[in-house]
Amino acid sequence: MKHLISAADLTRDEALLILDTAEELAAVSERSIKKLPTLRGRTVVNLFFEDSTRTRISFEAAAKRLSADVINFSVKGSSVSKGESLKDTALTLEAMGADAVVIRHSASGAPHRLAGWVRGSVVNAGDGTHEHPTQALLDAFSMRRRMGRLEGLKVAVVGDVLHSRVARSNVLLLHALGAEVTLVAPPTLLPVAVENWPCQVSYDLDAVLPKSDVVMMLRVQLERMNAAYFPSAREYSRRYGLDRDRFRKLHEDAIVMHPGPMNRGMEISAEVADSPRSTIVEQVANGVTVRMAVLYLLLGGAIGRDIK
Ligand code: NCD
User: Fold this and answer.
1) 101 and 139 share one domain
2) What pLDDT score does 272 carry?
3) Residue 307 lies in a domain
4) Is 269 found in the same domain as 208?
5) What's the pLDDT score for residue 308?
6) Which residue among 130, 166, 223, 279 is best mutated to probe the pocket of ligand 1, counting the most ligand atoms within 8 A of its Cβ?
7) How far is the CA of 41 from the centre of ligand 1 (A)?
8) Is residue 168 in a domain?
9) Residue 77 has what pLDDT?
10) In this predicted structure, what is the pLDDT of residue 301?
């Protein structure tokens, strides 16, 4: 594996290798000294054209824990704001000897283009409404840790599927790993051709909740909405928000996930978000471990050589 651009690029075995490597690396994250020498002398560039808190910091922490040199490039204050193209930016990074480029971009397909221009590995950290494969990997890792398995697990992914790269990557990855996904959303927030995705679709959250082992709530992405997709925030919450009453419909072992950032009070109530059955904070911690595994495998680390 050279690049990680889409969850669809991963076979079941490759996905499991990443999750298992992350499991080994998790032990390192629990030590007081969290660093491994594996990527010493290698350079990882974080190229973020879109706002991000947890994903950018997570990749930075992951690369640093593997002793890589990290260059954080954000668009504000760079020549991109002077109109420099993605290609020229890529050639600049290439000249600086980047071994891996982690890219987030508002255009779906930008990481794919970038991979054609640089020699290093490209990792997609979210492209438009297309994909966010490391988020899906950290979600699968978090589910497996809490529930003990992925095979046969019933996962509901709820909310603004239309604008969500998290939903698409999760459907593809979870399907490959044997979980059963149901997307739940109002018809206006489902993408065209969703019937071709390897999952079920429902408009009725109350019917799906009691049958679910995992409920993944998606952020309503108001910044990507240029039209009215639902009558009002209140109406959306009433039908598709996970509040205390709906939470009671879940069976007692079911867990609640959210990739963050949350609109508390809209798609999820504060009480549910902060409950012991919410994995939201664990997802952030697991994100670092899973991204370490991805960088480790892409940049040629051999498992077992220096984890121990
Ligand atoms: C997601 C993203 O940026 O796609 N967030 C994340 O990476 N943790 C989801 C979102 O923005 O709602």
Assistant:
1) no
2) 98
3) no
4) yes
5) 43
6) 166
7) 30
8) yes
9) 67
10) 60
